[in-house]
Design goal:
Blueprint: E1 15-21, E2 28-30, E3 38-40, H1 42-54, E4 59-64, H2 82-91, E5 100-105, E6 118-122, E7 129-133, H3 134-151, E8 155-158, H4 165-175, E9 184-189, H5 196-201, H6 222-234, E10 238-242, H7 248-257, E11 262-266, H8 268-279, H9 285-299, E12 303-306, H10 309-316
Parallel strand pairs: 1-3, 1-4, 1-12, 4-5, 5-8, 9-10, 10-11, 11-12
Antiparallel strand pairs: 2-3, 6-7
Helix pairs in contact: 1-2, 2-3, 3-4, 7-9
The structure holds ligand PBG.
């Protein structure tokens, strides 16, 4: 009877699995702070995609660990960049017919300084310092999105949080004849301690300062709604909210106000925190995984990006 009257459904097709792709062949290197998560070479990523498709998941979200980094993040948009290589290989696989291939658009994995945009010097004397330059970053993000879409991305997902990037990416995609490629914007992304383990997984920790000049203050819900509003106006087709669990009220507010599809990203810290408790035997693994995901659907998320996607699919199956 509980099943009969259940208000919220969770199914494997609602889940997106993140993949971290790196150079090499036959490589599966474990991420220390995220048990069960690996950096994969392209051939291994294709094998992983097969399994993900068999489990009935909705799609993949791709991140790249490039061979080399520089100040501009050149490896993010190179035709032969690591994510572009992975997209081409995945596109040729059987699995891709069942999966939505989403490419994360950001520069932090590709810049030496680890920031999500171009870093310039600012101020003078005592006040001299560095800052991320919003406007000169837009062109590089647009270039990245176009090269990913050309390589086979079904969706591009900017996560950098520069202002105006959705419009810049939309314009560049259209100009390149890619008007059919939708944009999933990380419209509401808070500066968060919960991204910690990801920065090990993606080797993207900022080498100085932090991301508070471009990611939002966790105390602000009105600002989050304004960011979403702007992104939709600029042409975002879907929006992604993150982190997830500490921001359920923001997901709910966005659901009530906007009609575009909404995704929630259960980020690395949320995953690692649960994994740590499982390792200690403090939480019931299976129940906690599903409860954490149903909560996001109940808050209003249509789909969920989660490192538990494969395991959750098995539990649901
Ligand atoms: C890149 C990006 C980050 C995440 C997704 N895209 C890290 C960050 O902003 O530092 C975090 C995902 C996670 O923690 O699982 N900008």
């Amino acid at each position: 009877m509980r099943a009969l009257v259940r208000e919220t459904a969770l199914s494997p097709g609602d889940l997106i699995y993140p993949l971290f792709v790196r150079p090499g062949k036959g490589v599966r290197s474990p991420v220390g702070s995220m048990p069960g998560v690996f950096n994969l070479s392209v051939d291994e990523a294709v094998r992983e995609a097969d399994e993900v498709a068999r489990l009935g998941l909705g799609g993949l979200l791709l991140f790249g660990l490039p061979e080399t980094k520089d100040d501009q993040g050149t490896a993010a948009w190179e035709e032969d960049g690591i994510v572009q290589q992975a997209l081409r290989a995945l596109k040729q696989s059987e699995a891709s017919k069942k999966l939505v291939l989403i490419a994360d658009v950001c520069l932090c994995e590709y810049t030496r300084h680890g920031h999500c945009g171009v870093v310039v010097t600012s101020g003078e004397g005592l006040y001299a310092g560095f800052e991320v330059d919003n406007d000169s970053t837009l062109e590089l993000l647009a270039r990245t999105a176009v090269s990913q879409a050309k390589a086979g991305a079904d969706v591009v997902a900017p996560s950098d949080m520069m202002d105006g990037r959705v419009a810049a990416i939309r314009r560049a995609l259209d100009a390149a004849g890619l008007s059919q490629t939708p944009i999933l914007s990380y419209a509401s992304k808070f500066a968060s301690a919960f991204y910690g383990p990801f920065r090990e997984a993606a080797d993207s920790a900022p080498q100085f300062g932090d991301r508070r000049t471009y990611q939002m203050d966790g105390a602000n819900i009105r600002e989050a709604l304004r960011e979403i509003d702007l992104d939709i106006e600029e042409g975002a087709d879907m929006i992604l909210m993150k982190p997830a669990m500490p921001y359920l009220d923001v997901v709910r507010a966005a659901r009530d106000r906007f009609d575009v599809p909404i995704g929630a990203y259960q980020v690395s810290g949320e995953y690692s925190m649960l994994q740590a408790a499982f390792e200690k035997g403090w939480l019931d693994r299976d129940r906690a995984i599903l409860e954490s995901l149903v909560g996001l659907r109940r808050a209003g998320a249509d789909f969920i990006v989660t490192y538990f996607a494969k395991e959750a699919a098995r539990l649901l199956g």
